[in-house]
Every structure is written in C-alpha cells, then in structure tokens.
Amino acid sequence: MNQTIRELYDRKSVRVFTNEPITDEEKQIILTSALQAPTAGNMALYSILDIRDQGLKDKLAERCDNQPFIAKAPFVLIFLADFQKWYDIFNAYCDEAPKIQEADLFLASQDCVIAAQNAVVAAQSMGIGSCYIGDIMENFEINRELLHLPKYALPYSMVVFGRPTKQQKDRVKPKRFALEDIVHINTYHQKSLEQTKKIFEKQSGKTGKELEEYITAFANRKFYVDFRKEMNRSAKAMIKQWTD
C-alpha cells in the first residue's frame, strides 16, 4: 500500500485542533491542490472562499448549528458551486444569453466537491486534519448576503482545517461499510430487508434490539431534526434562485 492510499485509509474528520497555525505555504499547497482536481470540460465550475475574518468565522459557526470548533479552526474554506463567471463571459461573447439550468447546477456541484476532496487529501498528506461542514447549506439567504454571493454561486461545501490534537489523532476512525455491500456489478441489486439488516449489523457491530436502538437514535439525530428541515428549505431556495 503506497503512501497516498494509506492516507486515504487513515483520514478521519477532525473537530479539535491544536493552537499551532497552518503556514501560508501549507495553505497555498492545499488551495493549489484543489485546483488540480478533475472538472467538467476544464471549466472549473466552482470558486473557493478563504474565510480569514474572525467575525465571519464566528457567524458561520453560529449558523452552522452552533459548532464552535468552526470558529476556532485556523483555516476555513467554502467551496461554491459557481457558474457565474461562465454566465458573464457567455453573455459578453455569445449572441444568445445562456439559460442556466438544473444540469449546470449538478455539474458545478460535482466540480465543487471534487475540488474540496483534493484539498482534504493534500492537507492529510501534510498532517493537517479536516472536517466537512454540510451545514453551510442552511440559512441560505442570510449567508448569501453575508458572503456577497451572486445568482449563480451557491455555498455547497465548507471544510475546516487544523492540526489535530493527540486525542483526535488517537480516536478510532468509524468503521466503513463492507465493499461487497456498497459495490454492485453492472446494475443495482436491491436487497431484501433481512439482507439490509445484515449490512448494518456488519457496519455497526450491533444486532437485534441493539441495532434497532442504534438505527432509531441515528434517525432521531440526523433526520427527525430541525436542521434537516432548514437544510431542505435552503436547498429548495438555492435551486429556485439558480433556475428562475
């Protein structure tokens, strides 16, 4: 197993950072690594916000479900699904103004998260931890105003970076699903409920009543909660702004 693959295996979310800063050179490497990511038609349908202002970090931490570690992170990047630059240049040079639609959002979203993952892998290779913040999709209207976002630039993913504490380094990485339970050959093979239970038994290490309690607690923590309602509301608002 080479070093790159080993780092992919070892990487886990880090939410507690030491006070050691990330150097300007390291930040530059992370950002330029993001730009090396695959992108649809080499269009780079994304932009990156480097959040340096502490006041902005504080507001983002509050709006992303009150997670103070966001404000404490030494390096915070927001990856925008961004068609604005292409829309503007098309309008300048093309006879007919383009209509930006749903497929353009999907492509921009793919570009966005691929670039973000490049940044995460680059950081990992330098001993810098990271954590994705999906909650950046909440509170769209006020974050759009806060970040001065134009019509075709949407906040799709946020990643915070910092050097992990010893406790975070030693923390066991959550167990991933088994390969045979995720990879389907040629076509999708929907499993029976009993087969699906077996998948979750392997992943969680729980069976019977313990599995039921685990799944119920997971649903209550991730699905039957206010932040998910807000995320869905914001997602609808983002799609409406993009396609109107």
Integer average pLDDT? 96
- Number of alpha- plus pi-helical segments: 12
Integer count of domains: 1
As residue ranges, the low-confidence spans are: none
CATH C-level label = Alpha Beta
Residues in β-strands, percent: 5-15%
As a whole number of angstroms, the C-alpha radius of gyration is 20 Å
* Biggest sheet layout: 4 strands, antiparallel
State the shape: globular
Give your account of this protein's structure.
By secondary structure, the protein is an alpha+beta fold. It has one domain (3-173): 3-Layer(aba) Sandwich (NADH Oxidase), CATH 3.40.109. The chain has helices at 3-10, 24-34, 54-63, 68-72, 84-93, 102-125, 140-147, 166-170, 179-182, 193-204, 208-222, 226-243, and strands at 46-51, 75-82, 129-133, 153-162. It has a four-stranded antiparallel beta sheet, with helices on both faces. Helix 2 packs antiparallel against helix 6. It starts with a helix and ends with a helix. 25% of the residues are buried. The mean pLDDT is 96.
Topology:
Layout: H1 3-10, H2 24-34, E1 46-51, H3 54-63, H4 68-72, E2 75-82, H5 84-93, H6 102-125, E3 129-133, H7 140-147, E4 153-162, H8 166-170, H9 179-182, H10 193-204, H11 208-222, H12 226-243
Antiparallel strand pairs: 1-2, 2-4, 3-4
A few lines on this structure:
The chain has 244 residues and is α+β, with helices and mostly antiparallel strands.
Provide the descriptors you would attach to this structure in a database record.
4 strands, alpha+beta, four-stranded antiparallel β-sheet, 12% strand, 12 helices
